[in-house]
Amino acid sequence: MHDLLKGKEKVLQVAIKLFSAKGFKGTSIRDIAQAMNMSISNIYHYFGNKEGVLLAILEHSSRRLIDELRKISEMDLDPLDRFKLLIKTHIELSGSYKKEIKIFFLDEEHLSAEGEEINNQIQRDILEIHCNVLRALNEAGYMDCKSITIMAFNILGTINWYLRWYRSKGPLSAEDVTKEVVSFILYGVLGNKKESIISEPR
Q1: Would residue 39 count as lying in a domain?
Q2: HEC profile for the chain?
Q3: Span of 60-69, 106-115, 135-144 with lowest mean pLDDT
Q4: Residue at 38 is within a domain
Q5: Range with the lowest mean pLDDT among 43-47, 116-120, 161-165, 194-198?
């Protein structure tokens, strides 16, 4: 069993590199097998088909993120501190899966109906966690939000665009950019904390 898991893990790491460089559509099972010096039949045995490899990458990269975000959402912290930690952790953990995220931004459209449902469930899980943390923030009086879901969509959109376009060779470090994104989410475009949607609790 250990050898099987180790073999699958190696295939996933190679597939991530190939999918990230050539795209899902531009990479074949044969390409993965050749890069691994492995028979094509072994790849099919591990994952069933090429989409099985893609979904395994998705589940592998999202499992830790969801687990960590859920832990934070259940922490006994002040709602604002919990919210800040959630955003920071989401950005930092997702940043460690840049290649995987690039794959799904570019190749999500190639998923089958079954694969799309798996992907959608992962997105729903992440959305639910953010909504729960925002709801606690709202109930504590830190903000006055008419739609928690819309607020969560806006936050996730901000995080996703950062993950899609950030380049490590830019003028700012990943830590600096993370601070900028967190600050923007907390205080908005105007940067006036006193007039921000995030305020002192009522």
Answers
A1: no
A2: CHHHHHHHHHHHHHHHHHHHHHCCCCCCHHHHHHHHCCCHHHHHHHHCCHHHHHHHHHHHHHHHHHHHHHHHHCCCCCHHHHHHHHHHHHHHHHHCCHHHHHHHHHHHHHCCHHHHHHHHHHHHHHHHHHHHHHHHHHHCCCCCCCCHHHHHHHHHHHHHHHHHHCCCCCCCCHHHHHHHHHHHHHHCCCCCHHHCCCCCCC
A3: 106-115
A4: no
A5: 194-198
Cβ pair 124, 147 in contact under 8 A: no
183 contact partners, CB below 8 Å, separation of at least 6: 191
CATH number for the domain spanning 147: value is: 1.10.357.10
Would 20 be classed as within a structural domain?
no
Q: What is the structure's pLDDT at 126? A: 94
**192 pLDDT exceeds 70?**
no
110 has pLDDT over 90: no
Structure tokens given for 54: 């893609």
Identify the pLDDT of residue 195: 47
The pair of three-digit structure tokens given for residue 80, joined into one six-digit string: 């604002």
pTM of the model: 0.81
- How many domains in the chain? 1
Asked whether the beta carbons of 31 and 21 are under 8 A apart, the reply is no
Phi and psi at 102, nearest 5°, equal -60, -40
Separation of alpha carbons 24 and 27, rounded Å: 5
Q: Cα–Cα–Cα angle for 181, 123, 196, nearest 5°? A: 35
